[in-house]
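User: Show me a protein chain along with its predicted structure.
Assistant: Here is one chain, sequence first, then structure tokens.
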Amino acid sequence: MPLHPSSAVSSARPSPLPSPPAGTPWRSAATAAVVARLRAAGCVFAEEEARLLISAAPGPDRLTVLVDRRAGGLPLEHVLGWAEFCGMRIAVEPGVFVPRRRTEFLVRRAAALRPSDGDAGPAAPAPVVVDLCCGSGAVGAALAEALGRVELYAVDIDPAAVRCARRNLAPAGGRVYEGDLYRPLPGRLRGRVEILVANTPYVPTGAIGLLPPEARDHEPRIALDGGADGLEIQRRVTAGAARWLAPGGRLLIETGERQAPETASAFAGAGLIPRVDHSEDLDATVVTGTRPPLGPAGPRRPDRSGHRRL
């Protein structure tokens, strides 16, 4: 079940949880008190969060610590140490961007571009996948799970995010680099990347103050702030993509629905064929840019593409 990082919570520290009556299983006895405390702190999904916190606590003393942290405003995922994403538990630690459910649409769109390992056959080479601005590595981990076999690389500029991503991508054999966008990637990947995903920050600088306190106060600003119009990092990713993509390779970027036309225009300006897709159920928008395949006369010129709503 998805977690809810946008729940509003109070920073006030409530009183300790009451002790259960003697002989009463502490988890059962604690439920009502935890729900009441979370509601008082402003948690919108108090019942669901209470169940998760109680399940995570080995005993009542630890539960009190976890509930205190949540009631004090720490995102639920940071309290638990994990976030649910595409049916997986992704490790997150305080100070690391929490993957949002809407970003599952980015994974869906990317996974649809390449058949799974079983469909492609055992002799087919593993697709080269790069996850820029990877944060906790959630997108890369989910893509590796969906595709079955990948040659996976991920990059983030934040050391805490890189630590998390290395934990989350280790099962898929992913290599995680610390640095600015393409800079730390091995040069041998140029012209070989089949799927390049980037969940770049796209909140305009002036709108950062409007974000929920959990994001504004507990996630790194570098993972949220996309510059004056929210598209500054997207433009940098887009400008460099063609040098790294294989012919026919795709760049996929999550963006805001109102920002999508400008993102698509930047793709076309960088020599990529743009396509915009929107998911109503996740309220998510993804722009895909395809590097034109090589033809007899060299790369084909990009054409305009319409919007698709899924």
